Automatic annotation (TrEMBL):
GO BP: any one term: cell septum assembly
Region (Disordered) residue spans: 1-83
Subcellular location: Membrane
Transmembrane portions of the chain: 109-130
Protein name per the record: FtsQ-type POTRA domain-containing protein
Pfam families the UniProt entry points to: FtsQ_DivIB_C, POTRA_1
Xref: InterPro entries: Cell_div_FtsQ/DivIB_C (IPR005548), FtsQ (IPR026579), POTRA (IPR034746), POTRA_FtsQ_type (IPR013685)
Source organism per UniProt: Gordonibacter urolithinfaciens
Length: 359
């Protein structure tokens, strides 16, 4: 036990010796020895803390450098402690693009919703109007007809009663009109609020063909169009059928050429195209003329294509033949007529070897 005690004493002594040999530590020791104790010490510490806080610079003021050009460390009473973070530029760009895309998407959604609402309202309104009596057809007007009467057109159109401009079958009406031989084209127009207009383009009479009857005892006058469609048999003007026929038909028939000497067996049917080569050849000759000669032809004999003969308004006969080299034949005929005023017959079937006869 004595041995242990001696070691402790020696150790204590040695520490004291070292402490006395070091000036710095001795100063701290003496300083701590001079500190007041008890409540005086507490008041002294509080005073120092208050003085320290009052001497700190305000966060809104400027920071002063410490002696030696150094600044106080963060969180040590100098600069306020700040947390530093790092963000890559690419991350910012992606975030901005995502924000813009989301904003654009929301705008598109709103627009689509508005458009869908408008379309739905329009569809509902259209369905209601379609099934109602709104825009009922009260008037049917006809334009462009001369050979057909208004009664004929109304009957062909057959517009249903109690229909409306929204429900009327315009395509069906047009199809029914086109079945008539006189109608080359037709347009059905809705004129709101209550009028249906039928605009028609008619065929015109190009010639009147004397078609032999089945018993070959007489002929029937048929109107034929320039596109070779049979239009109608022309009834006697004083007959009951003639009284129901438009006066324009008789007016045109008197002004166009007459095709005669058609061979027996030629078939004519309303609304069909002529299949007789002799009649078609005669029509092609007249329609292909481009000089004053065309207006002077009054009759065409169509016994056969090779023997087709034209008769002019001054009774000059022209053996024209087939509808070939029409312009050359016209030129030759006009030259012969100019050089021979008394000519009564010209043969241009072979245009390079024409012949003629004069009084």
């Amino acid at each position: 036990m004595a041995s242990n005690y001696n070691r402790k004493s020696a150790s204590s002594g040695s520490r004291k010796a070292r402490g006395s040999s070091t000036p710095g530590r001795g100063a701290r020791a003496s300083s701590s020895a001079s500190r007041p104790s008890g409540r005086g010490a507490a008041r002294s510490s509080a005073g120092r803390a208050s003085a320290g806080r009052s001497s700190r610079p305000s966060q809104q003021g400027a920071y002063r450098a410490m002696p030696g050009g150094r600044y106080p460390a963060a969180g040590s009473g100098g600069y306020p402690q700040q947390r530093l973070t790092s963000v890559r530029v690419g991350d910012l760009d992606r975030a901005e693009r995502a924000s813009r895309a989301q904003s654009t998407y929301r705008r598109h959604v709103v627009r689509l919703a508005v458009v869908a609402s408008l379309v739905a309202a329009l569809v509902i309104g259209a369905v209601v109007a379609y099934n109602s009596s709104l825009f009922a057809v009260e008037n049917v007007t006809v334009s462009g007809v001369e050979h057909l009467t208004t009664e004929d057109m109304t009957a062909m159109a057959n517009v249903p009663a109690n229909t409306t401009l929204l429900r009327v079958d315009a395509a069906g009406i047009r199809e029914r009109l086109l079945k008539n031989a006189w109608v080359a084209d037709a347009e059905v127009k809705r004129v709101f609020p209550n009028t249906l207009e039928l605009a028609v383009t008619e065929r015109t009479i190009a010639a009147v063909v004397a078609v032999p009857t089945e018993d070959a005892k007489s002929v029937k006058q048929w109107a034929i169009a320039s596109d070779h469609m049979w239009l109608m048999p022309i009834p006697d003007q004083d007959s009951e059928a003639g009284k129901r026929t438009s006066p324009k038909v008789y007016e045109d028939a008197a002004a166009v050429l007459s095709i005669t000497d058609v061979p027996y067996g030629t078939k004519a049917e309303i609304g069909t195209y002529c299949s007789d080569d002799n009649v078609n050849n005669a029509l092609d000759i007249v329609s292909g003329m481009t000089t004053e000669l065309a207006g002077r032809v009054t009759k065409v004999s169509a016994t056969d294509a090779e023997g087709t003969t034209l008769t002019l308004d001054d009774n000059v006969e022209i053996a024209f033949g087939k509808a070939e080299d029409i312009r050359d034949k016209e030129r030759v005929v006009l030259k012969i007529m100019e050089e021979n005023p008394t000519v009564v017959y010209i043969n241009v079937r072979a245009v390079d070897r024409p012949t003629w006869r004069a009084l």
